[in-house]
# Entry
Amino acid sequence: MDLKSEIRKRRTFAIISHPDAGKTTLTEKLLLFGGAIQTAGAVRSNKIRKTTTSDFMEIEKQRGISVSTSVMAFDFNNVRINILDTPGHKDFAEDTYRTLSAVDSVILVVDSVKGVEEQTRKLMEVCRRRNTPVMIFINKMDREGLNPFDLLDELEKELNIAVCPYTWPIGNGKQFKGVYNLFKEEVQIFAPEKSSLPESLICTKDIKDPRLMDYVGEDNINKLWEEIDFVKDMFESFNISLYREGYLAPLFFGSALNNFGVLELLETFLEIAPCPGPIQASERTIEPDEKQLTGFIFKIHANLDPNHRDRIAFMRICSGKFERNKFYFHTRSGKKMRFSSPASFMANNKSIVEEAFPGDVVGLYDSGNFKIGDTLTEGEMLNFKGVPNFSPEILKEVINLDPFKTKQLEKGVWQMTDEGVAQLFVQQPGNRKIIGTVGELQYEVIKFRLEHEYGAKCSFSNLPFVKACWITTDDKKELEKFIQRKLNAIAYDKENNPVFFAESDWMLKLARENFPSITFHETSDFKILKK
Ligand code: G4P
# Structure
């Protein structure tokens, strides 16, 4: 098959949600439909459960296994589907944001009872920023949920995206009877597993079917027609360009747990979701069908075996064909690299891959050369955009508890922050190391890993900051003045860019007002512009 056909065949996406909305259940159901797994539970067992800091050992345990669900690739109807897993736990949100830089579209799962939640908002912000095409699955329709009109209104307002219902629910909770598919113009009846509903009623175009009236009830059918008229008036009709540009989200109602609406979602996804497209590097736009290989590292899994310090770096292929044992150019170090056992992932199985194509993700064994955002090419100097760091929300100073292990501590902190576990900032005088994260759990993970993998001991001391912003300006004098004035709140990231720590949003606002010539960046994307 030629390169263009390989590209057309691929769909690379992520399923995202606020924890508990049903992401794992939906992923599993898609894998079951795709024939990639035979039994439910395969994905679930790898899930980092809702946990408190005391459960971080659980995370350690899961880290090893969850490598196999980092990418779930399978073929369905002659399409190669790559589902990139995103951690459900909110403390690992940064991992999720980075994974979103490696997908071509997403499916957002929303709990019909809870509506838009905190993580839904944040994840969608990242998608909107990148114009990622989004499909929405309203899950748990078997529960008493919000009124669908209210829910859609909330989605549009809070997520800043237009929605286009593909299906419309008939009742909800105990009264959930099914959905009307506005495109196929047919009713699909919801049949909970133990129901005695005849098979023939599961899907019908005959709205007057007496059995339908019997099961759904005349009132419900009449209400449905009224609602459908409203829906057609109120919402955008489907437009594939608007969807592909990330402005319009086709929306489905269903229940992942009960297998309802999942196949429908998958089929529509295959019809409309984009195949790998052009990707922007800071130097130029890369087209997927360019002959030469390009790709970037968006995730690193480290020290799977503590005795060997081995890591797997996950590379999204952007263009060309990846081949085992061929030399590639690592643009940050200028080194040539060759991979003798690159891994591909098929649901739960890992195997050595001989070749891979745009949209695919390969796992590269690495002894410490890679860092998140690194680019591989066949010689061209390229840096891919879009694996930014986000302003951490928690900042703590590392306190070294064993002065004889200072070097090990340095190395551990440096390597872990290369992997993207957290961000490192250094403050002078005294070379104080400050770790920034979006979740408390990370500190437990770092402490544990420093001790077990690097033999170093540390504790963390809380700092009164809630935000870290990278600061840039053309006015060097003004920057110096600002740095002098805020010395206690200034540190430097690993590339020596100055960062301002704000004690509150209000302090940040004040700093912005008092120093208008300085730009305060809440993500590190500005570095790309600098290059
Ligand atoms: P997440 O990955 O987004 O965190 O969510 P997950 O799939 O783990 O689902 C969270 C909970 O919601 C699970 O229950 C799951 O069974 C339930 N769930 C998922 N889809 C539906 C649905 O369509 N209807 C209903 N009623 N529930 C649904 P749990 O009790 O927390 O876990 P478990 O014991 O079932 O594993």
Observations:
- The CA atoms of residues 14 and 100 lie 7 Å apart.
